[in-house]
From TrEMBL:
<comment type="similarity">
    <text>Belongs to the Integrator subunit 10 family.</text>
</comment>
<dbReference type="Pfam" id="PF21045">
    <property type="entry name" value="INT10"/>
</dbReference>
<protein>
    <recommendedName>
        <fullName>Integrator complex subunit 10</fullName>
    </recommendedName>
</protein>
<feature type="region of interest" description="Disordered">
    <location>
        <begin position="558"/>
        <end position="595"/>
    </location>
</feature>
<keyword id="KW-0539">Nucleus</keyword>
<feature type="compositionally biased region" description="Low complexity">
    <location>
        <begin position="561"/>
        <end position="583"/>
    </location>
</feature>
<dbReference type="InterPro" id="IPR026164">
    <property type="entry name" value="Int_cplx_su10"/>
</dbReference>
Amino acid sequence: MTSVDENEMYMVSQAQSLRKTDPSSAKAWILTAKTLYPNAFNVQYEAYLLERDAKNSEMAAQYFSIIATNFTNQHAELWQEVNALTSALRNETENTPEQEFYVKMYKHLTPEVQHSIFVHTISNCGDNLQQCIHSYILMFNKFPKTAVTQAPRLLEMLAEGMKADPDVYQRMLVEEVLPLIQNKPPELNPVLACRLYTNSLEYYLRQIMDDEKCDTTEAWKNIFKVLMLCGQMMGWEPFLPFSKQVNQNVYWDKLVKILRGSPAGSSQVLFYATTLFIYSLHGYIRKLRIEDAEVSHVLVEGFIDWTPEGGEVQSMDWTPEGAEVQSMEPPKFSATTAISQELSEAFLHAARCWQLLNTEQFQRDFSQLMLALPLAPWISRFLFDLAIYFGHRDEANKLMADMTTQSTLVQSLQILSLNLMQGSMTLQGFQCILKILAELPATSGQLLENISLKSHRHMIFLPLTKIALIQYCTRAITSRLSRMLFEPNCSDRLLGDLLALLQLNPDKDILLKQHIFNLITQRKSFNLHILSNYIIATDIIEELAYIWNTQQQDDVNFELTGSPTGSSSASGGTNTPAAAAAAQPRRIGTRGADKGARDEFKSLIRQQIARCNEHVPTLVANFITQEHLTLVQHIFGMAPPVETIVIK
């Protein structure tokens, strides 16, 4: 070390020793040193420290400018101060008193020095990716024009960081970087722009899926903003901004217009269509659960009413087997609840986008996108519903295994729907009915319209309410049993059981009930064993009373069976042999009926009419569960072992 260096260091060390105890003497030493060694870093740096410790932000800025301008590529002490300065600038709203000083000092720096600080900080970050990115963000905030040229490099860094820590760098991209470049987006490599959009989309989708308090409207507004921004970077034709009031047909029409003017496999169409698909899919999945009432909906097969218009049921043409082969066109949706229309529209929009994206030109890239996004729970449910919509039963069975967090009630309902899709309910389908009735939800609900339509296949969104589920299960059984009315020698019990089931919706199936009554009156003998337990509908009781009264004059025997008071199996009574022996039911017939029999018949009719205000859905559900062995014998020809249809 030369004598000059020794003198410089001696004066600096004297100033350092006095800086805390005697700032004036320390300053005198530094003034002398500055005269002798004006270009020495140690002298200028110590002069800066004196002003810094004295909280003299203006003078400190002057010395800081000198050392930051002339000594940028050396001296660790300088970079400690630069880091302290940039850290204070990043947290201006929550600064300590020490950091407040740095913010004030920064304001006294010239713009050239301010900018050079950021440039040199970025150049010296080394492997510290987060520090480098934060410095870029800070520079863009302070010098917005630099974003035009520097943003591509920053975006590349973010993309690199997402490989190691996607959560951190996605948040930085979406919340800090994109707002800074949205007014003047830079030109960007298409691959990088698409990658950044995918990461932004993933960030917002995780918010929508994981955060119950997420404002989904705001999230989708931001997704569309990012889509438009990335489109600008790649010179795409602008898409439409997000608006909840815009019908999705408008978005689809815009997409089709862009598709027609784009080459095959266009990235522009791929990303616009993917965004529109996910938006429609989210709307569909969200609407499957009504947010206010907390009632879920399940897409199921509707029933086909083969009753001819305006005429009697006279022939086999009334049954599905006698109908024409159904069209291969997709089914319609029936309006069953207030939200059915919105559900069907969201589903069809998602299906339309899905079909476009699975064409040969997009399928490979779209599949990769789906793997990158956290959509598995939504996709599995949608694909299952799509399979049953198109009637692909085998595919739906395979997809059912992939669906997660599926309640047993929903699963039983979906299996039943698949069973009905094939045209004839199997024992598995009947077992599902028993399971559904054993798990009925507490929400009561109401009877649905349009679960049966004439002559074409249709789908319904069934709300998971008690009455709607009973109605669907009952309809599945009556649809199967009603076909047997045209078989020779259908049993009295079958006719009576159908009447019990048809009580659920008295304004429907009028022609079917008339046909049953016609069959009854045509018989020389008829016995209705289940009257006292299960028949309480006024219209059916009145018709039965009319038949009983008119047939007393004919050579026929119309016999009703009444149970002693308190023995009703509909109320859950015990059906043991001992109980049956203790309370034998009384048969009341028309053949040879005397005054006592007629009085007993009137008493039975009054007893049943007095029950007309009972809850019919519960009565019908009890009938199905308590008489399931008989119903199985009707449908399948023989009663299966009891253990195969245990209600759990």
